[in-house]
Amino acid sequence: MLPYPQINPVAVAIGPLQIHWYGLMYLIGIGGAWLLASRRLNRFDPTWTKEKLSDMVFWMSMGVIVGGRLGYVLFYDLPAYIANPTLILEVWKGGMAFHGGFVGVMIAAWWFGRRNGKSFFQLMDFVAPFVPIGLGAGRIGNFINAELWGKPSDVPWAMVFPPFSDPAQLPRHPSQLYQFALEGVALFLILYIFSRKPRPTMAVSGMFALFYGIFRFIVEFVRVPDAQLGYLAWGWLTMGQILSMPMILAGLGLLWWAYNRPQGIKNAAL
Fold it and tell me: Which residues lie closer than 8 Å to 72 by C-beta, 6 or more apart?
């Protein structure tokens, strides 16, 4: 068993002002994505400036934050937020849903693309390789917050999370770190390497949807579901798995269409 590192969720405190690690992880993810995207900007569109890239990253980041929070509210704990709507604003306590953030990014990409002469999938293919940076940073934030831990386990790397988080004080899978490794590191390497060569429109987006869905579906088997939801069927199916299945199917569909659609359509911006 490994000891859980006792990290204060508050990174910096100046009087009443507190900056939480969870929020800093989002800034690290957004900044890292911007840095790598700027290195590929000329290949994407030589006419785009870094100022336009910054605008795109800003609006997509808003999509992640607003969509992620609203997605958690709608999919995971709607009754609690209806009873106390002010909880929606307390994002530093966690409670972000990737699938909601993904929808928010898609809306932002569609809107920004229309205003800047780019199709939806042109933008999604461009940004997809950089999204795992934010995903990985977010999972580290979950780990520091001691939330979203896994099932009890006797594996050598199991951890006992703090009593405020886990009153049972059982050794558990550090599932946040599994997700960091898969959704962050592995997904980044897959997409970054895949996108180094020119690919047909929608192929990179398809790879992102497919592998994120697979990785999330797998980790859900060792992650404890949200207490207010529990397992939805068969004693193992979780909300995360239900929301990941459409992504897997969509990813397969996008990849098939990217490589098999008629040549005239293949060369068109979609």
Answer: 95, 96, 97, 100
> Angle at Cα 199 formed by Cα 193 and Cα 202, nearest 5°?
105
pLDDT tens string 9-28: 888 888 888 888 888 998 99
Residue 5 in contact with residue 159, Cβ under 8 Å?
no
pTM: 0.88
Tokens of 91: 């994002």
Phi, psi of 152 (to 5 degrees): -55, 140
What are the residue boundaries of the structural domains of the chain, listed by start?
A: 10-266
Place of tokens 């909300």: 239
In whole angstroms, give the CA distance from residue 227 to residue 134. Answer: 25
Terminal Cα-to-Cα distance of the chain (whole angstroms): 50
Closest CA to 5 of 170, 169, 165, 162: 162
- Rounded to a whole number of angstroms, the CA Rg of the chain reads 19
Coil, strand or helix: which one is 236? Answer: coil
Residues 62-90 have a mean pLDDT of 81
181: Cβ contacts below 8 Å, ≥ 6 apart? none
Give CA angle at 32 (71, 111), nearest 5°.
50
